[in-house]
Amino acid sequence: MKLLAILLLLSITACVAKDNATEIKTSGNGVFYDGDSREEVTESDRTFIVGQATAMIYDSTRSKFPRLKDSYVLCSDERFQEQRLIGYCSGVLVAPNKVLTAAHCMQGSSRCENARFVFGAFNGAQNLPIHSCKQVVAIDSKLDYAIVELDRDVQNVTPVKFASDSYLNDGDAVLSMSYPLGLPLKQDIGVIQDSQPDSTFFQVAVDTFSGSSGSPLFNKKGELIGILNRGAEDILEDDIYRVQTKGGCVNFNSCANGQCRGETFLKASLISNKL
């Protein structure tokens, strides 16, 4: 099965008009650390293989996919505004037919039935095979992870490897792959801020948003070390109130590295034996 029309080309012209000039969608979490450092993923990148294994999860019942600028009242300096918002969560291929994501991405009686998975949905990608959710084989709401069995094996994509060493160090550079806000795949280099050895979760200064939930985090070897569970707000409430009462535009939340708690990731080592 192939992606139809609006899904085939992630950069096509918008067809959804802005309904309300002061409407701001605020679901989900995200923040910039020391500015927006997200980048597109291309075939020439060393990160391309793990990018191919990163899944966009979208709702098959939706028929319209607006541009970023049609969904938020953004200031002109915000990036990727012409790109479409398609996915609602991210995930990663950990076996030929299994995806690891956040539990809150798959909760609800119809989530598996309506969820569709595409891999390596880079900006401008076309003819991407669509995979359905056959069943959720494991889910843990406390740890916030889910393992989804797909309807068939994913062809020409290499499942990621779990890190052989589960020890994390504060200050280590890490790689995030996700579909922030449902945009085409983005990569970002982050820094581990709090890796407490006895903790289930760890904190990372990395640029993620709603739509990034369930996304993978890799060490310098390209091994999976965590999946995203939660983070800071995409847009600050004060900015929302200002635009709703006075007009103008908003920028996404931003803070200097070290001044925010960081995005929260579940340690992948805790679930590597669940497959």
Describe this structure in words.
The strands form 3 sheets. A 6-stranded antiparallel β-barrel has the order 9-10-11-15-13-12. The chain has a 6-stranded antiparallel barrel with strand order 3-4-5-8-7-6. β4 and β5 form a beta hairpin. The chain has 5 helices and 15 strands. The protein is globular and about 50 Å long. By secondary structure, it is mainly beta. It has helices spanning 5-8, 48-52, 68-71, 111-114, 237-246, and strands spanning 32-33, 39-40, 54-59, 89-95, 98-101, 115-119, 131-140, 145-150, 173-178, 186-194, 201-205, 216-218, 224-230, 254-255, 263-267. The chain has 2 domains: 5-26 and 42-150, Beta Barrel (Thrombin, subunit H); 173-269, Beta Barrel (Thrombin, subunit H). It starts with a helix and ends in an 8-residue tail after the last strand. The chain is 10% helix and 29% strand. The longest helix is centred in the last third of the chain and has 10 residues, at 237-246. The model is unreliable at 1-28 (pLDDT under 50).
